[in-house]
Amino acid sequence: MTEMTLLAEALAGIAAEVELALDELLPLPEGPEARVVEAMRYAALGGGKRMRAFLVMETARLFGVDRRCAARVAASVEMLHAYSLVHDDLPAMDDDDMRRGKPSTHKAFDEATAILAGDALLTRAMELLAEPDTHDSAEARCELVMALGHASGARGMVGGQMIDILAEGETLTAEQIGRLQALKTGRLIQYSAEAGGILGRANLHQRHALMAYGRDVGAAFQIADDLLDVEVSSEEAGKATGKDAAAGKATLVSILGIDRARAQAEALSAQAVHHLDSFDDKASHLRALAAFVVARRS
Amino acid sequence: MTEMTLLAEALAGIAAEVELALDELLPLPEGPEARVVEAMRYAALGGGKRMRAFLVMETARLFGVDRRCAARVAASVEMLHAYSLVHDDLPAMDDDDMRRGKPSTHKAFDEATAILAGDALLTRAMELLAEPDTHDSAEARCELVMALGHASGARGMVGGQMIDILAEGETLTAEQIGRLQALKTGRLIQYSAEAGGILGRANLHQRHALMAYGRDVGAAFQIADDLLDVEVSSEEAGKATGKDAAAGKATLVSILGIDRARAQAEALSAQAVHHLDSFDDKASHLRALAAFVVARRS
Q1: What are B102-130's pLDDT values in tens digits?
Q2: Contact check, Cβ <8 Å, B33/A155
Q3: B103 pairs with which residues across the strands?
Q4: For A158, which of B36, B132, B161 is closest by C-beta distance?
Q5: A40, A167, A282, B255: which has the highest count of C-beta atoms within 10 A?
Q6: Is the pLDDT of residue A1 over 70?
Q7: Which residue is closest to B94 within chain A, CA to CA?
Q8: Cα(A261)–Cα(A264) distance, rounded to whole angstroms?
């Protein structure tokens, strides 16, 4: 079998594993507040490539971390990602009616419920990291909370979304767009790769290698996402495409052109693989993922 | 001086102290994402009674906790509270234009910025609890994250807000309203009283006493808040009042009537004081607060 087939199997396996973990770690819809829990589950379950979960599970595997502990951290980052999509899709934000091939949360429920469900997903993502089942060491659990907070807060993902909204109709330089995307999507992907190192009590050299890998994979992923937006129909991608141009949003693709953007994504992908040189064959899926993110069609 | 004068001084002192802590612990508005940080600071700084901060500081003082550590936890709970107000005030939620005598965050900025600022405040509130400066013991830091998550998530504050929204136009029983309010405002107040016990490594008996105190103070506070809504003009209160009736929201006041509701608030206040019996004179401010929450006019 090719590396890509093996990767596809590994991705599917981890997606199933994290789905079970999410189902277990999300609250059950009970009591008069059930509706917000239903919306949390609608937003977090049954969709997505689970790339962030994959990064957590595969970097944790490098250090022989207990798989149940890693799955909790993987579920946490997928909850965090789901919250960000729910809030980004709101009418006051990107105003997207579709997500992962189904109505976005505020369409399936309503705006108030979507805001609350996002809030509760973020809260639960943080809370479960701190729980004893996540790691024997409370120090490691605190490190995970800090790293996730750093990646997703005002100086991370939320800051990136702010820049993205403010940039509508503005002309950004390639450098500004790089920073926007590093914050908006890059930091959480980087955290996902770092998380296995935190769980595995990796040494500083290993932590830095994983973070560098995550940074480059994240940057490559984002350019590939922007390429997808101009190249692929929304039916094939399972979400609205062609939106960046419609919204007047500049991307690296609109500035560099398709060919140069693709070349840059491929260079970042190769660089990401290079950061894993000190790891053995256990990192083969991570290497294959770096290639996959620039080859994917959805 | 009367107990109430001493309490007013203590409240003002802690409000000033937590203001400094918030200023230090919130990010500075820099870079292209500065707008979301400005909105965070607008929402969290310069307002409110800081009752939750007061509960953290005063319960921490019972155990001789380092004041700088307690101030971090106090700032965290005020960030959490501020995020909940920013999101609750949104047009899709309670649609309030005024808060603490000034325009609510989405009026001073815009909806997208308010959603993001709330998200970032919640994220920062969690993150800073996990940081080493908050407590020498990582176990204690994890306990704080867990307790705050429990108090504010789908089974706590967010769940309460969901019930509140769903209840508009519905006829709730006194018991249902009690549960709604226990979740929506009670849990975070209870957490604030418990937090000093976590910081102080209190024994189980002490932890339970503080939680029971916090629960009863929170319930008394909420009834007093509802009384305020029917009794006091919005100018005096510095926020919109008479809103519950206008929105068709049932409160304990609308069901029990003003006199019986006030009697219940006073009974809860007395019960709260009783839970502090095992603590010495150091708890005098906490005892005075229980009386204050039912006597306040704003």
Answers
A1: 999 999 999 999 999 999 999 999 999 99
A2: yes
A3: B98
A4: B36
A5: A40
A6: no
A7: A112
A8: 5
Q: What domains lie within chain A, and their CATH numbers?
A: 3-295 (1.10.600.10)
Round to the nearest angstrom and report the end-to-end CA distance of chain B: 22
Backbone angles phi, psi at B276, to 5 degrees: -95, 10
Query: CB count, 10 Å around CB of A30?
Result: 9
State how far the Cα of A92 lies from the Cα of B241, in Å rounded to an integer: 27
Q: How close, in Å, is residue A138 to chain B by CA atoms?
A: 5
CA of residue A248 relative to chain centroid, distance: 24
A182, A44, B37, A107 alpha-carbon torsion, rounded to 10° = 110
Distances A36 to A21, A29, A43, A99 between C-alpha atoms, Å: 19, 8, 11, 18
Q: Could you read off the pLDDT of A200-255 as tens digits, one per residue?
A: 999 999 999 999 999 999 999 999 988 988 887 656 666 666 666 666 677 888 88
For the complex shown, is ipTM > 0.85?
yes
Cα separation, B294 vs B284, whole angstroms: 17
- In tens, the pLDDT along B204-237 reads 999 999 999 999 999 999 999 889 888 876 566 6
Measured from the Cβ of residue B11, the count of other Cβ atoms closer than 10 Å reads 20
Yes or no, beta carbons of B155 and A36 under 8 Å apart: no
CA distance B188 to A156: 27
- Residues 6 or more apart whose CB falls under 8 angstroms from that of A167 comprise A176, A180, A249, A250, B32
| SS3 category, A103 | strand
Hey, is A287 helix, strand or coil?
A: helix
The dihedral formed by the CA atoms of B92, B97, B101 and B102, expressed in degrees to the nearest 10: 100
Q: What is the pTM of this model?
A: 0.96
Which residues from chain A sit within 8 angstroms of residue B166, using beta carbons? 32, 35
B51-61 vs B187-199: helix crossing angle, rounded to 10? 30
